[in-house]
């Protein structure tokens, strides 16, 4: 007999909600049917989120629901097969699942399925009823066939082909008609996935070789079920990048009427051009051309250097502007009555900047300085459609989409054309103008702009004679002041492993000796100033403080001007850090750029180095070969210290102070900025090769 309460409960019960198609999954894929049906590589797990409305008179713990799944297909004999599965009760709103049995699932057959919810009293409508939909999938038990790979630019196993900076196009094609993507990878990258226009079709990818040597592309074909083919390996061999199609060194003899082309057509010079000008130091250039900024200051071969501006190309030159307050052109190429690509100086913004202009697109960056050398490189990558600008070997500005004109008129050095004639004439030096008919890749951009560091001093501090320790490179010796001595390991020192009574003799920091400073007056100097602190330089030293907890700051390196130090490197005990201090002017109390690298405590051997890169206006402090953001700062237009290099002291007021108490060894000084790869060699006893 049913009680009144039971009758009311049954009458008030709300049936579960119809499962929504968007809440159904075949594996991790959404419910679909027809041409969009899902393909799976194994027995899938069917899932659905099921909901049951909450009745006011029903306790919360009774809000449970279970799912009834049903799947069906037609077998090879034409007989319909049906399977069903009922889940355990779980709270409303949770995802229910049915893992279909693998041994019961037919391959290459359309399987349909649906689901409904049950709350113990009533069923919901099937998910396929009304506005719902049946879900379909096909179980694929075959892997696709491996892809075949081909490339017109880089045929397989051919020694050697085209080269760095020239795109190759690689087509991947599997015989299987259900392939929907190709997973690929080159040695060192890039890695990715290429999608054919239609299932089973081929896909083509571009690849830009960044270095010469053997290269390999590996490919796997992936079908619509996610199955992968075996791996295809495609080997090819990349040559070095093609030489420039035009090259004017501009190192012609004084009085020459034009510039000889190493490659391409000789360039005639206007009357405002003189040869035999200065060249950037520490490069292979021996001379440059000087353009006076007048209407006669130009050179032209009278013919194009960029044959087709719609294809990839690059323009480069070494330049030194005599002014930065107006627009000036380094190189350009005519395009009818206007200019095509233009590489030069743009003074229209808030501050002057280098620029590469191509049609309506312009990339700008860097900071031109009057009288300072810079290497400029403009690159147009036709594959990506973007223009790039490199200044001193580093990309600057944002790559910009460009739509270059097809017109190819005469190439110009020192001027650009518009409808009113030529304008924006260059005033200053220009050298080593090159035109490439390919992409110049980043490593080559750095190589074109490379200024080889030059050793200005190396004091190994092994010996001293007449109060001076010799420079290993034959330059000025380090003169030892009062309180400075050369410590050498005694030749008759004993060894603890061979003599139990031995009291070990302290080792030298590097080699057989080092400089010992007393912390009161001890110092050493090298007549100089050894390095030009207004230009790129590197100074390195090996140092050990005598005290674990020094009671005051101590300077290990400095280079003075008349009133303060152009730079100094010191240990600051309060911060347990090495500091690099660069006053902005040769004045007492001038503002300073200070960077630091925390070291911990004194008493240990450290290799400390300062690197100033004038091309990027960046100063770095290295400790034991490491630097970081806290040890790096921007430092534009630094001034030149004129005094001798100081070891173990710094300027303080009218005299000297911050004397170092400890040991110093392997002092190196270079004109030029060493790279991160070079720094670890300093103080190691092995000279950097600058290869």
Spell out the blueprint of helices and strands.
Layout: H1 4-12, E1 24-26, E2 29-30, E3 38-40, E4 45-49, E5 64-74, E6 80-86, E7 90-91, E8 95-99, E9 110-118, E10 135-139, E11 148-150, E12 168-173, E13 179-186, E14 191-194, E15 203-207, E16 213-223, E17 232-238, E18 246-248, E19 258-259, E20 267-269, E21 273-277, E22 288-292, E23 299-300, E24 313-321, E25 328-335, E26 338-346, E27 353-358, E28 361-365, E29 374-381, E30 386-391, E31 394-401, E32 411-413, E33 416-418, E34 421-423, E35 427-436, H2 442-448, E36 454-459, E37 468-469, E38 478-480, E39 484-488, E40 513-518, E41 524-526, E42 537-545, E43 554-560, E44 565-572, E45 577-583, E46 592-598, E47 605-613, E48 618-623, E49 632-634, E50 645-647, E51 650-652, E52 655-657, E53 661-671
Parallel strand pairs: 3-10
Antiparallel strand pairs: 1-2, 1-4, 4-8, 5-6, 5-7, 5-9, 9-10, 11-12, 12-15, 13-14, 13-16, 16-17, 18-35, 19-20, 20-23, 21-22, 22-35, 24-29, 24-35, 25-26, 25-32, 26-27, 27-28, 29-30, 30-31, 33-34, 36-53, 37-38, 38-41, 39-40, 40-53, 41-50, 42-47, 42-53, 43-44, 43-50, 44-45, 45-46, 47-48, 48-49, ...
Brief summary of the model shown:
By secondary structure, this protein is mainly β.
List keywords for this structure.
mainly beta, 8-stranded antiparallel sheet, 691 residues, disordered N terminus
Report how far the terminal alpha carbons are from each other: 100 Å
**What form results from the Cα inertia axes?**
extended
Low-confidence stretches: 1-9
Helix content: under 10%
Number of helices: 2
Which structural category do the helix and sheet elements fall into?
mainly beta
Give the beta-strand count.
53
Largest sheet: 8 strands, antiparallel
Mean pLDDT: 93
Which strand-content bin applies to the residues? 35-45%
Backbone CA Rg: 37 Å
